[in-house]
Design goal:
The protein is of the alpha+beta class. Helices cover about 20% and strands about 20% of the residues. The chain contains seven helices and ten strands. The radius of gyration is 23 Å and the shape is globular. The protein starts with a helix and ends with a helix.
Amino acid sequence: NNQILKSILNNSDTNYGTIMAHTRWASVGEVNLNNCHPISNSIIQPELKQPLILACLNGDIHNYKEIIESKNNNIELYYDRDCTSDCLSIPISLTRRDILDIQSIKSVFRTFTGSFATAVQSSQFPENILLANKGNQGLYIGFSFDNVMFASDVYGLIETCRYFYPVKSGSIFSISKETQVYNENFNFEIHELDSENTNTITREDLKTTNISTRDIDKKKFSHFLEKEIYETNDIVQRTISGFLQAPELVNKKDLNNAIIINQNQIPRKIIENLKKGLIKEIIITGMGTCYTASV
C-alpha cells in the first residue's frame, strides 16, 4: 500500500525505481489473494533456482491452461498452486530462460492467443519493465520532463505526463532508468511482436490530451476503484435514464412511448419478436470486466 511504498523510498538509498501497479475488478478464476496481480513464478523464494518473474495482465489469454500444463511437465516449478489466473501462464512460460530480453519474450508471446496487455519484471534485470500488447487491449506510454509511465488508458497518465503515445497492437518494448524522458532529442524504440521490425518514436509522434486532472478527481474516495464501486448505482441510473422519455411526455394509459430506442440501437424486428414471445434465449457476451458488468 502507499504507506509501505513511502517507507521503502524514505528509508533506503534508492536512486531510481521501476514500479508496477494494477487494479482489476475481474480476472480468470476466483477473486481472491492468490489471483491478485502481479503473479509470480515462485512463492518459495529460498528454493528459487531461477530469476523471480512478476507479471500483470489486462485482457485474457485464451490458451493459458494448455501453456501451464505443458510447463508443469517439463520444468520444476514453485508457483502458487491455488492461483487460477490466466496471468500465471506468463511467468511460468518465461521461467528457465537464459536471459529475459525482448527477443526471448517475443518468442513466448507469439504462442499466446487472446487479447491482452502485460507488464513483466524480473530479478535478473530489476531496473527494467517489459511491456507488450496483442489484440484490442489498450496500452499507453506517457512522458514528462522527469519520468516515464505506462497505463491501459490515457486517464492513468495525465496527472503526471503531458505527452503520451498509444501503443499499437502487436508491440513489445521496455522501459528502465535508461529510457529518455521528454526532451529536444527524444526518441523511443518499440518492437513489433510478430516480426523483427523496430519503430522509432520521436517528439512529433507524441500526442497531448485535453483531459485534465479535474476529469479524474477521486472526490472523497481514497482510490479510483473504490470510487467506481460506490458510483455504480448512479452510473446505472444515468444509463437507464438515457433511454427513458421525460415523465411529463409519457402516455400514462399504455406506456408505449416510455422508452426511447431508435432503430440503430435495437432493430424494430427484435422488439416485435420480444413482444410476441418469440425470443426464448438471450446470450450475453463480453470479456473480463465487461462480461462481469453485463452479468
